[in-house]
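Fold it.
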Amino acid sequence: MSIVSAYFKVENINGKHGTQELKRELDMLQGVTSVSVNDKAENITVDFDTTGVKKEQLKTKIEELGYSITQMRFENQIM
């Protein structure tokens, strides 16, 4: 099991509704362990197990929800 934190900077998160939608949709992906969305800073943080979900799937899901990703980075978690 390999846990990774993904950090996305996106454009135009639509307040509380957008925050809830992003959290709900990303949480549904198998392997995602936590999701944090800050609509004011336009940041999304996702912790996930790479055996359940791949980095590209997270990026694709965010884009499918209509958000443009301006920055992203990934950090392996040391356990």
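The beta strands are 3-10, 32-38, 43-49, 69-76.
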